[in-house]
């Protein structure tokens, strides 16, 4: 997992209550939990909390999904059932936070079958950021405001207000890290309007200087290349290649810029779709004919 992906999960976990109460209202007394789970699987849960739900002591298991994962429902069942039976059948509330739309997001509940016979069922909650609206974010805490650029009806005209709201709720010592995440999500959502995003966020005081490196290093950010290749105009594809280039290799030289701008559509698409495979400078230069 890339640095940005880890950083995103850490920040969202630190502000988990903002996310959890939207999925399951009534949860209080949320405290990070790091106890033992009997016969725990090798894969690690994103975060487990001890909490109270309407005066009942529960565990809350939060998974943050930056990419599609068809095994997530089975994993929730595996983790949750082990956690429950390891601690005197204490109920486990499972929540999955999805940052972007994926075609194969499994709907709850998870059902384990023996042929046509259901033998176990696990209920969980999907919170899909891309289905939230501006109205739902109006009084949101930091955990959701970081993700506001990904919400359903947020436009580029809403960014300044959302960024100002986020800044006002963020501790000064956390502002650089949280501002970078918000700016990166904004740049990803409005990828063909990056200059406008940059102008708006700098006006608020969020800087985008590190975003190029963030996108280049992040497995989640690598999907940026494939999406642009399929969806965007030639100018947007050129801008995307230059963004990825700066993140991995530094500022491109004049020869590189000239070659990219002169490349035909097929070459541009090939460069983007092979970006994660072409790890060396020489390999990428060869793609653009240098």
Explain what you see:
With 290 residues, this protein is an alpha/beta fold. It folds into 3 domains: 3-130, no CATH class; 152-207, no CATH class; 213-287, no CATH class. The chain has 14 helices and 7 strands. The protein has a 5-stranded mixed beta sheet, with helices on both faces.
Please supply descriptive tags for the structure shown above:
290 residues, alpha/beta, five-stranded mixed β-sheet, 7 strands, globular
Secondary structure: elements and pairs:
Blueprint: H1 3-14, H2 16-23, E1 27-32, E2 47-53, E3 56-65, H3 72-86, E4 92-98, E5 110-114, E6 117-122, E7 124-128, H4 134-137, H5 142-145, H6 159-169, H7 175-189, H8 194-204, H9 211-217, H10 219-231, H11 234-249, H12 254-262, H13 265-273, H14 281-287
Parallel strand pairs: 3-4, 4-7
Antiparallel strand pairs: 1-2, 2-3, 5-6
Helix pairs in contact: 6-7, 6-8, 9-10, 9-11, 10-11, 10-13, 11-13
The overall pLDDT average reads 82
Radius of gyration: 21 Å
Helix content: 40-55%
SSE pattern: HHEEEHEEEEHHHHHHHHHHH
What order do the strands of the largest sheet run in, or round the barrel if closed?
1-2-3-4-7
Estimated share of beta-strand residues: 15-25%
Q: Care to count the β-strands?
A: 7
Q: Poorly predicted ranges (pLDDT <50, ≥5 residues)?
A: none
The number of domains: 3
Number of helices: 14
